[in-house]
């Protein structure tokens, strides 16, 4: 008995393919498929069903409505015939049970003409006129850092603010006078994120050295380190009601820390690229992250899992900002700034026109949203309508190159009346509203058709 030689499945499959090819090769070119009408019709039907199957029923419904409208509006004879038919099939007055004297609403014969008008789609509602906002102007420039100023945070009492830069130093400035109050050293690389606790005398910082530090502002010393990130940490946020810190960075994760025990409660995994921005709030979703993978994710803090992923952006999302009074947030990408409604992340509208890498955003209770770009441009928007009422090109510090006109972070103070920006020319700039401006000197250049195109 001969021993059967065993072959791999891969070899057997290719042998079968070769045999099939040899068997049918003589028939090649005999059948002219293009001349076969039945085959062509079948091929088109398969292609149409494969591509448009989900909307077939809509086409049929639309066709039926069109035929119905044509029939009703074809001639007066049809209308008269339809009225007679309606009268014939309607029961006699008083024969219906709900047409009694105790009826809440009197029964009326259906108006065919009225039904005919309902086939016409309703007009879109008028777009509201944007609220007038005073233009913003630069009123203070602060120098002191020796590198790009990457982040800023304002103290809850609105007396001072802190900045972190590429010179590895955190500086604390007096908000009223702009004078330097304190310098904190300890990071060994660029400081990329800052947060001040509203309930404790703590300042939190993170940087490209993978470190997350907690500073005790009574002693101006580091009292805690939070170890766990595998790469640079780019953003951080403090939960408004819980003793919880959230950090995010280049290792594509966001981490949730117990502020006191330093325990890593959750590691929020799901993004496939750098997580550039993280914000947190007391209501659901409690954590929102924006990433270079072009997505925005909404997270459930209790479960430590993603509730929703928003994939509308086409390019990297570098900034996410919460509205201080409305249950909404915005995300920024080079293609568009998009507004969303919580908790499901329902899309509201696009804010188009800031065609550069948008590094940062801020919004105040008055509904003024401002976005800062990599080329030093700032756009001011009316939150409700998406109207861009002002554009500013930030001036670089004397001695700097024009290419150093990038804006890396921005924040409003707690009153919403002053805007602090940190920039690539190593300066901190403070803007405020122009008190002399009025609706007559700076009118709203409102074009509804443009706003409508942006919105939809």
Plain-language structure description:
- The longest helix has 17 residues, at 56-72.
- It is built from 6 helices and 28 strands.
- The chain has helices at residues 9-24, 37-52, 56-72, 76-89, 112-118, 448-455, and strands at residues 136-143, 149-154, 160-165, 169-174, 180-185, 191-196, 202-207, 212-216, 221-225, 233-238, 244-249, 253-258, 264-269, 275-280, 287-291, 296-300, 305-310, 319-322, 328-332, 337-341, 346-351, 358-363, 368-373, 377-382, 387-393, 407-412, 418-423, 427-433.
- The termini are far apart.
- It is α+β, with helices and mostly antiparallel strands.
- The chain is globular.
- A 4-stranded antiparallel sheet has the order 1-28-27-26, with no helix packed on it. A 4-stranded antiparallel sheet has the order 2-3-4-5, with no helix packed on it. A 4-stranded antiparallel sheet has the order 6-7-8-9, with no helix packed on it.
- 17% of the residues lie in helices and 36% in strands.
- A hairpin with a 3-residue loop joins strand 3 and strand 4.
- It has a domain at 136-433: 7 Propeller (Methylamine Dehydrogenase, Chain H), CATH 2.130.10.10.
- This is Pleiotropic regulator 1.
- Belongs to the WD repeat PRL1/PRL2 family.
- Pfam families: WD40.
- WD repeats lie at residues 142-183, 184-225, 226-267, 268-309, 351-391.
- It comes from Clunio marinus.
């Amino acid at each position: 008995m001969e021993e059967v030689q065993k072959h791999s499945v891969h070899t057997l499959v290719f042998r079968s393919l070769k045999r099939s090819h040899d068997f049918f090769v003589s028939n090649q070119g005999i059948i002219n498929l293009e001349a076969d009408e039945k085959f062509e019709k079948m091929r088109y039907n398969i292609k149409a069903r494969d591509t448009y199957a989900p909307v077939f029923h809509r086409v049929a419904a639309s066709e039926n409505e069109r035929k119905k409208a044509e029939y009703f509006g074809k001639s007066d004879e049809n209308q008269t015939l339809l009225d007679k038919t309606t009268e014939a099939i309607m029961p006699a007055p008083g024969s219906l049970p709900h047409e009694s004297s105790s009826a809440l609403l009197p029964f009326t014969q259906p108006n065919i003409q009225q039904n005919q008008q309902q086939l016409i789609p309703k007009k879109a509602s008028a777009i509201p006129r944007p609220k007038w906002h005073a233009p913003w102007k630069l009123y203070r420039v602060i120098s002191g850092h020796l590198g790009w100023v990457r982040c800023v945070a304002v103290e809850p009492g609105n007396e001072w603010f802190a900045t972190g830069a590429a010179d590895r130093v955190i500086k604390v400035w007096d908000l009223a006078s702009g004078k330097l109050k304190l310098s904190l050293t300890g990071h060994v690389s660029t400081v990329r994120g800052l947060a001040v606790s509203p309930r404790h005398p703590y300042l939190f910082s993170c940087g490209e050295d993978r470190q997350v530090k907690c500073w005790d502002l009574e002693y101006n010393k580091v009292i805690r380190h939070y170890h766990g990130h595998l790469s640079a940490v780019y953003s951080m946020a403090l939960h408004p009601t819980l003793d919880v810190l959230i950090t995010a960075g280049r290792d594509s994760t966001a981490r949730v820390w117990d502020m006191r025990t330093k325990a890593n409660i959750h590691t929020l995994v799901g993004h496939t690229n750098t997580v550039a921005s993280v914000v947190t709030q007391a209501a659901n979703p409690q954590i929102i992250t924006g990433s270079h993978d072009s997505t925005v994710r909404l997270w459930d803090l209790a479960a430590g899992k993603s509730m929703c992923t928003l994939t509308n952006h086409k390019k990297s999302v570098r900034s996410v900002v919460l509205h201080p009074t409305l249950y909404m947030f915005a995300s920024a990408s080079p293609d568009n700034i998009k507004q969303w409604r919580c908790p499901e992340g329902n899309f509201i509208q696009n804010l188009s026109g800031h065609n550069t890498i948008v590094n940062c955003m801020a919004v105040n209770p008055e509904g003024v949203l401002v976005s800062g770009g990599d080329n030093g441009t700032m756009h001011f928007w009316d939150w409700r309508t998406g109207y861009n009422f002002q554009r500013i090109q930030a001036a670089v510090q004397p001695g700097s190159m024009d290419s150093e006109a990038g804006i890396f972070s921005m924040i409003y103070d707690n009153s919403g009346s002053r805007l602090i920006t940190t920039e690539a020319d190593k300066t901190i700039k403070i803007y405020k509203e122009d008190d002399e401006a009025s609706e007559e000197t700076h009118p709203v250049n409102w074009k509804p058709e443009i706003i409508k195109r942006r919105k939809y």
